Amino acid sequence: MSRLDRAKEKLAKTNYDALYVTSEVNQRYMTDFAFTDGSVLITHEKSYVITDFRYIEAAKAKVVGDYEIITPDRRAGDFLRELCRENHVKTLAFEEGSMTYAGYKSLSSRLDGVELIGVGGFVEDLRMYKEPGEVEKIIAAQRIAEQAFAELLPEIKRGMYETDIALELEYKMRKLGAEDKSFETIAVSGSASAMPHGVPRRQPIENGFFTFDFGALVDGYHSDMTRTVVVGKADDEMKRLYNTVLEAQLAAEAVITEGFKNADADKTARDIIENAGYHGCFGHSLGHGVGLEIHEAPGLHAHAGDMTLKAGQIVTVEPGIYIEGKYGCRIEDMMLITEGGAKVLTNCPKELIELDI
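The structure assignment produced for this chain is given below.
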């Protein structure tokens, strides 16, 4: 079943006559075409890609699905009003998370006779379940990131700045075929590693833990991984901390499978860290979904209730321990949930690496 068919099937189970897609990420998902000026209208019978002259030729060549590709000949709101009339749309669901209040006011003033209903997660819920082609792109992005990291480690020298190391990692990913970095690369050492989302500093790397959180982008799809190494030699407490994080991650990966509760995956890792004496040192969730966005549904966290993992979902597994003002460590893989099981997509070693520089 195509993405458009799945959206129409979902639409048929609602009281909406049509769905108006304005999120660029969701537009790309629904049409397999990336554009930045336009929208997608999906009704029970017909569906439209609405874009301007700059994109029309590319849209005709790249849009996937039974869409009519059209260019407005008047203001967007007025054009949409005519489409709604032609398709007998009386209730129009719109993506409330991607429309400004000013945009909503403008649209509602033009769509007389049409009830606007804000919805959240309509397309995002479809995006949770990755098709084989999407999985291939995420794996391709991950392999690029892994190779870039393997090439980078031997090149790290004493006196190099964190910012320069982060840039070098991004350069290597681009050179290996990534269209871009997946997100702002984290490469923080010493005391800065205690900050889960620390920003690389323009200063020489410090002794101690050195955390890398990074990913590559391939055809719009992200990868995400974290590895923590040690600059110099790890003392006994650093080894204990690192091994606790690794134990927590491996335990979570061992229980994650189709049908397993998201919250229980988080609890599995969190209990190991807490029981090791690192109370309050793991302050973020265990993981999140990855796809056309670096953070998307589903989440692995304590507040997931009875939500369970489903085949086709890709999630990160990334426990960490952070001791304020001292140092921190995180290890992150991606996992694909399969029918009756799960598979780790990350092929990067996890034994403690000491950089003897």
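Interim note for the steering committee: Residues 132-152 form the longest helix (21 residues). The chain has ten helices and 20 strands.
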